[in-house]
Amino acid sequence: MPDGPQVWICGDCHVGNLGPLANIHGGVDIQIRDLDQTVIGNPAHDLIRLGLSLATAVRSSNLPGITTAHMIENMIGGYEAALQDNPKKVVADADAIQDLMRQSIRRRWKHLARERIRDAKPSIPRGDKFWDLSKTEWRDLTALVKTDGLGDLVTALHSRKSDSSLKLLDAAYWVKGCSSLGRLRYAVLIGVGRDQNDASDICFLDIKEATTAAAPRADQAKMPKDNAARVVEGARHLSPNLGNRMMAARFGDRSVVVRELLPQDLKLELDQLTQEEAINAARYLASVIGKAHARQMDDDTRHRWNKTLGEKRSKTLDVPSWLWSSIVDLVGIHEASYLEHCRRMQAAA
Hints:
single chain; globular
C-alpha cells in the first residue's frame, strides 16, 4: 500500500456511511454520515474500505460478478477526478444518487419522526428500541441541555433564533446496532420556541458515546485526545454538513458526541440497483471521498497523491494492483470467517 499524505480519513468508509446530509443553512449534499472511526491517517485505507464495501454489495445482490471489476475501476476513476485542479466539480451523474437526493430534499420532520420514533408527536415510544432512563441519566441529560454549547448547537439551524428557549420534551436510551453495543446512546427531543411554554419547533438529538478508534492512524499525528473532540474535528474536515451540526460533550464521566438529526439525512443502499446504476454510483461515491480528502491538501500534495495512484496499475484492470489485491484478500477473509462462524453456531446448537 502506498504512503499517502496524512489527512483526516473516515476510517470506516463503507457505502452505508455515505448519503445525503443537510447543512445548517438548508442545503443538502452527499457526504460521510458516520465519523466514529475518523483519524488522521493514510487515505488509501478509505479507498480499500470503500472497495470492499462495493464488492460485498455486489456479492449479496443479483448482479453478475464482473460488476465488481467495473465498479472498482470506476471507483478509482471518480476518486482521481476529485483530486484534479477543481475538486468541487461533480465528476459523475448517477441516477440512483440523484433520486436519493430528490427524496432527501422533500423530507420533513414528520418523515423523520415516523422513521425514527414511529410517531409525529413529540414523545418517544418505549419498547425494544427505546428504554426508560435512570434518575442519574435524567440528571446528567438535564444538565447537558442547560449548557451554552448545546444551546448554540440547536439554534445554529438557519430557521431558529439565537435567543430561542429550549425545553426537554422526552428522552430515552436508544438501542442501536452492533457497533453501539456497550456504549451510551440516547434519543432526545427538545422543544425550541419563544419561551418554555412554546415548542413550535422540534429538535431530535442523537447522543452517542465516543470510544477509541480502531482505524489505523498516522504515527505522530496530532489529534484531540478526547474521543468525542476527535470525531467532531474529523467531521468538520471530511463532512462539513455534519461536522457543523455536532459538538463534543461530557455525559457523567463519559465523552459523547451530540448531533441533531435532520429529515434530509438518508442512508444509501445499493441492493436494488442495475449494473449500470451500481457502476455509476461507485464512481460518484468515490468522488465524494476524493473531495473530502482533497480539501485538506494543497495543490502539490494533491498532484503527488494523484500521480502515486496512477502507478503500479494491474495489467488486466485499470486499478492500482495494491487496491485490487487488498479487496480480493479481504473478501476472502470475510467469507472464510463468516463460514467458520456458521460452523461454530451449528456445533453449539
